[in-house]
Amino acid sequence: MTRKCVLATCQLNQWILDYDGNRDRIIEAIKTAKAANATLILTPELCIPGYGLLDHWLENDVYAHSWDIAAGIIAHPDCQDIIIDLGLPVQHRGCNYNARLIALNGQVLAIRPKLDLCNDGNFREMRYFTPWPRGRFEEYALPDVVQALPRKQKRCPIGECAIEALDGSFASETCEELWTPNSPHAHYSLAGVEIVLNSSGSHHELRKLDARINLIKEATAKTGGVYLYSNQRGCDGDRLYYDGCALIMSNGEVLAQGSQFSLKDVEVQTAIVDLDSIWAHRTSRSRGMQANDPSVQKLKRIPVDFRLCHPSITLMTRPTEPRDPRYHLPVEEIALGPACWLWDYLRRSKAAGFLVPLSGGIDSCATATIVYSMCRLVVSEMQAGNEVVFADAKRLYGEGFSANITAKQLCNRIFSTVFMGMQQQSSKETRARAKELAAAIGAHHIDTNIDTMVQSLHTLVADTLGFEPKFKVHGGSQSENLALQNFQSRSRMVLAYALGQLIPHSRGGAGGLLILGSANVDECLRGYLTKYDCSSADINPIGGISKTDLKRFIKWAETAFDLPVLQQFLDATPTAELEPITNDYVQSDEADMGFTYDELSILGRLRKTFKLGTVGLFQLLVAEWSDRMKPRDVYQKVRDFMYYYAVNRHKMTTMTPGLYLESYTPDDNRFDLRPFLYPRFTFEHRKIEGMLKKMEEGEAGVNGA
Question: Where is the CN hydrolase domain (predicted)?
């Protein structure tokens, strides 16, 4: 066995429209791969302009600029003698395509457009691109910037194809194509292709990584072969965090895996692969019969006068040993994913830091703990010698910065927390918890009361309307009670933004702080928040996380981050503290909502992920919850859930951009596209009541017998 080669893949922290920065990161990855004697490198999907351009994909400039960068890369002195698979958009005969550009020594070998576009969930690729028909193969007229290169190349092939080097072959598929039932890699394997390249723009979702890795394992375990997977990593300007995990697999086994969460802008994975080992996985006669199918043999092949096996790789060189895939626990994903997203957002926005209104409850506690996790990652990366992180941290920290700062010191400089209490509503316990948490993580903390703000608004409204609104516990109506709570909530939002603009100046610095929201996915789903209260912020790192998962994260962080104070938050009853505390009444979130957080998670997942409406929810849950409640009680839960979801849906249209992490997030601006003016579901209610009548009549008959 002598066909051993070094293959490389990478994960890059690209930023939309950052052409210079994106180019530099790509070139750094290529140089790193060449230093390891790699002869082929794969880069992420659309890595030249960045993946998440949204409607910028409709602009001609993006296509022209992408070719400018591509020409510069393939002609760069450090990018020769290695096959490069780059991601960029192309225009061809009146259509836009999401494509791969495969190049060697300044020559474009082929352009391979994406066959299957991702057009659900967070993705709208068919809004911008056209899927390339399978099997289509023709010529592409290269732009002037490529024709001007030393090779003076004017045309290249475009379409579905395989590249045949002198000692091996490879073909590309792109992101979504791996997830489709009829994935191209199966076709390529039958056609004898030995290496499949998959460039992706795949975002982080809690508990999703194993599904991705299992798909790639299956792709190579069934018919043998090598599979290279490249992914973007980081926040490229939107609600998504791309989670890297570049992979090299061979015959169903992992040879190399990149980190899922990291502050590194460039990470390259290489492996020494024995192409001859693939043969043993392709000797079944049933495979041979399928391989001779005429449709398989129609795959276009482009010969290239180049060897994948580098002269430095000899008979004595040992191939890379297989290893087990690496997964994070969900609590670790919460600790690391949002923290990395926050760091990217902070350094790229050029803001001075973050501010979070710290209430003493679990949600704002979780947000603050994630910021502390970010500071820990930054300090760790500086200690590891990451020059980019060092430069960003130095700029943010300002005077007194050193390479030896601690996470608490960094947190104190860039993170402010504020407790905005009310003398009658806020308990001593919540105020104390907020103060203790801020001290434990090192945050700059402000403890203040907003009674004067709220009273001024109260007086103005009373004078304007000619009556004194009262809380429910003082004899007021539901409307009065809700309005008075909202006076407080919205006052806190105004003060948070005022402090965010002025705290840096008060501390001798400059710039402004980004305000962080702390509304979790379940409260957004139920609408249990005030429009334009502290849920209105600049960004929200926990907007896609359930209350149940947040509690698990806090319990884990208590030990992992050595923060004993977190146990107090877990022991406390979740409360908004917007109503006066009396001897026999303390406001409780779950009592107010009429649902436990676990119930909301179940209802939300069934509504979105399982795509159930009102009747479908009842039909499933009447059996699932039969051990805990009667059918009519299940109906009431479903009815109440859909009612509150509908009447509060308008709140989602103005929600703070939250990091996407959960499959049932109700984010209206990208993921969960729904109306915000609903009827009362009377038709659905009649259907369920008819089902209940039959169930109750049947039960009465059984009991009577």
Answer: 5-275
